[in-house]
Amino acid sequence: MRTRRRHWLVALSFMIMVVAPAALSAWYLWTRAADQYASFVGFSVRTEEAGSAIEILGGITDLSGSSSSDTDILYEFLQGQELVRLVDDRLDLRAIWSRVSPEKDPVFAFHPPGTIEDLVDHWARKVRIYYDSGTGLIDLRILAYDPADAQRIAQEVFEQSSAMINALSAVAREDAIGYARDELAQAEERLTGARVALTAFRNRTQIVDPTIDTQGQMGLLNTLQAQLAEALIELDILRETTRESDPRIVQVERRVSVIENRIAQERAVLGTSAAGDSAFADLVGEYERLATDQEFAAQAYTAALAAFDSARNEARRQSRYLAAHVRPTLSEASRYPERVVLLSMITLFAFLIWAAVVLVAYSLRDRR
Hints:
By secondary structure, the chain is an alpha+beta fold. It is 70% helix and 11% strand.
């Protein structure tokens, strides 16, 4: 009698814990749950690295590759609130996912209006992300009650993801050439300052290049030195061949004195006057210093410009982009929710729970 009663209790518990939930789930899935359509899209982040002309001729260029760090960032972006808000602003996800009234399908339909947090939670249910970290491929399955809506969401997700990768690429490119641009700006400012200083010197002294004038002064001194030597030789010859009272000696001596005075005056021009005013030597020294500063600034500017062009070209050669290996698809038949799969899982879990409860009950009974 007790055995029969125990069997009836086990059968009753099986009906309550397994058959009833399975029957209720089947009734809901086939009578209340609305059909959903899936759109699939797949993409990956690629990095284009076009080599220089020499590398291309040598055949050692790496055309493209994937960036795991960028793909990880994109994977987190696909699950984040920012993307959900962007897509909702463009397509109105609340309206799309509540086309079926929540009163008819309270399990799978979105309950409007809902907060952005509610929408993010529902996004996780409607958007399934498959990420292969080994290959860097990302595949998405997006559900909606209308196949066109699902495709539109998939297309918008791809466009927003592409925009995000482009923004990352722009930031990386700016970081790569930012230092070179700063160096170029400093070199340009230094060159401009050197040119302004040299122009101010020329305006103040009214001399374009003191070194040219100095060369002229030195040429004049050399000529005077030669004339002085000739005059001294002529004077020595006259003193040896004529009397001291010869008037030619007085003339040559006067000529020697004039030449010596002229040489002293020219040397004073090249040196410093008795009053302490700057003479040609100081002007030449100042000019050479300014010219050296300008030449150094020009060389630094040329080097900075070459570095900037090199950094900019290198940044252009390493560009990221989003490559789609599966374009957003348009479904023709409803395959979701997967009623048979869901019913099987519900029945299996209900059975396992019922079996565990029965085993615990029998264990407790045997202990008594």
